[in-house]
Specification:
This protein is mainly alpha-helical. The protein is built from four helices and no strands. The longest helix has 13 residues, at about 50-65. This is DUF2949 domain-containing protein.
């Protein structure tokens, strides 16, 4: 997986602000669906973030002009 600067910033946000571990994030990115769906939705589908956290992620993405 190639990670661009916005992806790095998103991963930092997920780890620092939402306290997700690298292992939590890896759960979502290891699955085949990762190539077909946005990371925030996959994190929610796997129960790694709740709706309030998902909303915070989308707010962060909107602030950074990058909805995935």
């Amino acid at each position: 997986m190639v990670i661009n600067s916005i992806d790095r910033k998103l991963l930092q946000f997920l780890q620092k602000e939402l306290a997700l571990s690298q292992a939590d994030i890896a759960v979502a990115t290891r699955h085949p669906e990762f190539n077909h769906g946005p990371l925030p939705m996959l994190l929610w589908q796997y129960g790694l973030v709740d709706l309030q956290q998902l909303d915070r992620i989308f707010d962060w993405l909107a602030e950074h002009h990058e909805l995935r």
